[in-house]
Amino acid sequence: MKQTQRGVRWLAVAVLLTSLLSGCSKDNTAASGSNTPAGSDASAKQTTLRFSWWGGEDRHAATLAAIEAYKQVEPNVTIEAEYQGFDGYEQKIKTQLAGKTSADIMQLDLPWLQELSRKGDFFVNLKDQPAFDASGLDQEFLNNYSVYNDKLIAVPTGVNAYCLIINKTLADQLGVPADTEWDWDTLYEAGKKLHEQDSSKYLLLTDHAAIRQDMVTMLKQRTGSQWVKEDYSLGFTREDAAASFDWLLKAMEAGVYQPLGESDLFFGKIDQNPKWINQDIVMAPSMSSILLSLKNVLPADVEITTGLPIIAKDAKDSGVLVRPSQLLAVSNDSKHQEEAVKFLNWFMNDKEAAVILGDVRSVPPVKSSQEAAVAAGKIDAAITHAVELGLSRAGIVDNSVANNSEVQKIMDDIVQKVSYGKSTPEQAADELIANLTSKLAELKGRS
Amino acid sequence: MSVGRTLKPRKNYNHIGLLYILPWIIGLLIFQLYPFVSSLYYSFTDYNMVTPPKFIGLTNYKNIFLHDPDFYQSLKVTGIYVLLAVPVKLAFALFIAVLLSAKLKGIHFLRTVYYLPSILGGSVAISVLWRFLFMKEGIINSMLTKLHLGPVDWLGSPDVALYTLGLLTVWQFGSSMVLFLAGIQQIPSDLYEAGSIDGASKPRMFLKITLPLLTPIVLFNLVMQMVNAFQEFTGAFVITNGGPMKSTYLFALKLYEEAFTFFKMGYASALSWIMFVLIMAVTAIIFRTSNSWVYYEDGGDRS
């Protein structure tokens, strides 16, 4: 009797557990069903794509408008927008890619693409996609930035050039020349003079990433080569590094830059820096795609122009950085790759899209799109000017080791020590070389 | 004949109870135990979330202890942070709780007001607000300048930034305060009457009656706040991003950076286990020393 009762109880337990599992199974079946394309209804089937990007308000508004326009092209495709500022975007994207929950189409920065292409096969090879027309794009540009292991895994959204974004109205008021070609010495003298006249004013808007870029640029200009080479060796000497840091220390002390402690509160969001908004800073060394963000926070009557970034006297390489503003890629985990590629093709090649988007991702790289946007007056002349200058003086192309986040972090750390006066230029040079050597050996062993 | 009848054993209902809590058990197993155990495994691999993890023995731990100066920097920063923010927070919470335990008109409103920062929590929005309050051109410096006391570089100075972040944590003392308030309410009033009859002053009654009887709650608050402080992340990430010069580079930031900036999941798992061991050790020390300072009215269960 007892035996029977106990059996009945455990049977009840088993039934309940089975029901629970059955419920899960049913859900899975339903989910699978919804992913199976019904052949006869394929052309009329509703498709939802996720599109992920970072940017400022202008870019968000224009991109949303483009998504709206695409509804007229493909009524059965819905694009879900996932947009935010730059801060934190990289972490989100990498986590989603690793977890296979990424958007179908996503905007990426070049260094991440280089890193990710080494780590795995995340993106659709657009060469295999007949729906994507790459003929309007410069092949050398693609080969430099979009092709990895002979696969075209992303498309540049625009041509970005490192430049000086200049508040010309303020520069004219303060007697700072707005149309000159700077070298590090003339820049230092002008910045020092400006800060001596008015201690609330600084010549350059920056954060530690921008200073890191300046230091890397200086090294390239001194050596004519990559600061970190593709074979995991250093491309500069101790003397090169010490001279660069010496300039940085002097510039910080003289007030050429806003103190890093203040400016770094706006790391990755320099347009929110009150010193720029209150027009206490004249120029921002930055990528041209940032221009609109920096312009939009200033009064409408302020004139913004662009100029070449700083090039050393006797530079062996200009160090002028030209590269994709961002890149767009289609995830290999996308369940609607064909539809995603079609949208990407429209977004990049269609004249209507170009007119809607204008210069929110800098100058369009497709010639016909560029012409359409210019004709419609949708590209800021200052951005075009920056890109033209950049292309005319472009320096060597960065390699993926130099762009590695751990490598860059080492320079970031040294830059901060020098900026805060916690390290002499010679100590900084020694530490940079020691830490880089160690890290590069580790990376080489890991690759 | 029935005199010799054996009593039937009590029916066993364990399986029914287990069924009722099954959802919670499943959640525990899936979301707590599995990650806990798998992170220990990953800490012995070079897992980067992309390629399959490859076993590398103690290499991650060796690299952390022998080749990573940032590890020691994050330990140092976190240690200072815990040692300052936790005691100050508890002291302030207790102080306010004593004040708010008075029988006054409008006291409930004041209790609510003081609790509000705790409800707001250490969220991103509050962190952004803190940044704007304390930056060089912020309202705090505006007020200090008017008083000829400023400006202070609250967030931009490597010597000051960590304390400014600590202030944000201390400001959220409401939950500790509520626990202290509840404890104070439970202290028998006849003890105070006896003290009053014997001529004890208020400070002396606080030291001899209130504080000893609150020590179990002090212990609870101390452990909870200490554990949370070791894992503090949001303020340091949103406001200062570990800067300036890594002066706010808390352990959780180090962990985050290795995991989500560098994709070094194995390494990050090893760091998280080191944090776990560290917190366990500090907790054990607190519990062991609590024998000498925590008073239980019922004598505890040690007798």
TrEMBL record, chain A:
The keyword Signal applies. It comes from the Bacteria. The keyword Isomerase does not apply. Coiled coil: none annotated. SUPFAM superfamilies: Periplasmic binding protein-like II. Residues 1-30 form the signal peptide. InterPro entries: Bact_solute-bd_prot1 (IPR050490), SBP (IPR006059). Keywords: Signal. This is ABC transporter substrate-binding protein.
UniProtKB/TrEMBL annotation, chain B:
It comes from Paenibacillus donghaensis. Pfam families: BPD_transp_1. The keyword Ligase does not apply. It is found in: Cell membrane. InterPro entries: ABC_transporter_permease, MetI-like, MetI-like_sf. GO terms for cellular component: plasma membrane. The chain crosses the membrane at residues 21-44, 80-100, 112-133, 160-184, 205-227, 265-287. GO terms for biological process: transmembrane transport. Belongs to the binding-protein-dependent transport system permease family. PANTHER family: ABC TRANSPORTER PERMEASE PROTEIN, ABC TRANSPORTER PERMEASE PROTEIN YESP-RELATED. Keywords: Cell membrane, Membrane, Transmembrane, Transmembrane helix, Transport. Residues 71-286 form the ABC transmembrane type-1 domain. It is a multi-pass membrane protein. The lineage of its organism: Bacteria, Bacillati, Bacillota, Bacilli, Bacillales. This is ABC transporter permease. Its main location: membrane.
